[in-house]
Amino acid sequence: MPNFQTVRGMRDILGEEAQTFTYIMSKARETAELYGYKEVITPVVEPIELLSAKSGEEIRQRMFIFKDLGERTVALRPEFTASIARLATSALKNEPKPLRLFSVGSVYRYDEPQRGRYREFWQSNFELIGSNKPEADAEIILLTNSLMKTVGLHGYAFKIGHIGVIRGILSKENVDDKTQNAILQHMDKKEYEGAFKLAPTDKCRNKLEGLLQLKRNDCFETVENIKSYVADYEKAKVAAENLSDVLKLIVESGCPVQVVEPAFARGLEYYTGMIFEVYIPELDIALGGGGRYDRLIEMFGGESTPAVGAAHGIDRVALALQMQKTTLACKSGKRVLVLSVNDSLKGEALKIAQQLRISGIIVEFEIMGRKMAKALEDADKRKADFAVIVGERELKERAVVLRNLAKRQQHIVSIKELAEKINS
């Protein structure tokens, strides 16, 4: 017999881990609802032209690309933003702004598998389209803060920067877009020497190197250092002012900003403004992040439209919860096994099971043909709270036997009061 395994970088998500995933996704949906974001569902497979347009060379090289049966070159989505930008230029182009859109699902990148990094992974994604104001940037960060808090994480903090600071320097030093993107890719991976070597002049190299010296423990002091440092670079100066405005809004709102990083970059080419990531001390990989992308929708054929968004790694948030030994605040109903003492009563037993489910009680029906003792023993192993035993004598009185499996106690309860007794 063949021994089938999952494809490398893919995995089965089972048991408690699957429960954690659905818990995080439910909290993401709750957060979306609280902030007024509407859920949209986009295809996993998209045209390669859409996904590769401004995703960045690093991600382009790691996409799952193939030809469909119509000989069209397509790819599995490596992230959500390109699909949302497509929607904004087509189905949603006449909708009033701002658009607040939420998505959740799997994305695919051919990365080297390691802890917290898989080739198929899950994200919750939030996009705010139509505003260029600092309040929009602040909203995306505060929304991320709300999600981290709601799932039960503690000790997390944000790292914030502004891609416009680096691009403002590079543009004034006449660095072409392709080289700018390559420099930013290196800086994203903290390969600073590789980044600085690509600078065309000593002045440009020295200016980039100097960014690394500006960081201070106090985030507002760091921003002031950036402002002074780029005073002669008009676009970079405007970016630093914008970063200052966003920072004030989120700090005043109680969001834990730990670091402002002057040389911070992210791997996607479409960012134009504020960028951020969120971390916990126990993990050296970001749990989520995002930023502003004001030119992407226009590039896909839409009108000039500012936008900002964030994605949160569900796999990584689940890992973070595990590392912090967080107990999930799941709303779980009572678990019950329903069984009958003989085959002739199975129809009545099924009817009772359905009534209990309507009352919000989790019911497993005995379908294995086991003897009473074995069925009760199995229910105990499955951590059921109660067993409902349907017998002829009790049924004549419109009653059943309700057995508390933990206490090993049982008593007769009328069917009319059964759900209330179980829930109480």
Describe what you observe in this structure.
The mean pLDDT is 94. Helix 1 (15-34) packs across helix 13 (314-323). The protein has an eight-stranded mixed β-sheet, sandwiched between helices. The protein has a five-stranded mixed β-sheet with strand order 13-12-14-15-16, with helices on both faces. A three-stranded antiparallel β-sheet has the order 2-4-3. It is an alpha+beta fold and 424 residues long. The chain folds into two domains: 15-323, Bira Bifunctional Protein, Domain 2 (BirA Bifunctional Protein, domain 2, 2-Layer Sandwich); 335-423, Rossmann fold (3-Layer(aba) Sandwich), CATH 3.40.50. It has helices at residues 15-34, 48-52, 57-60, 81-89, 134-151, 163-172, 177-188, 192-197, 202-211, 219-229, 234-252, 296-299, 314-323, 346-358, 372-381, 392-396, 418-423, and strands at residues 38-39, 45-47, 65-67, 73-76, 99-108, 120-129, 157-162, 257-260, 274-279, 288-292, 307-313, 335-340, 362-365, 386-390, 399-404, 409-414.
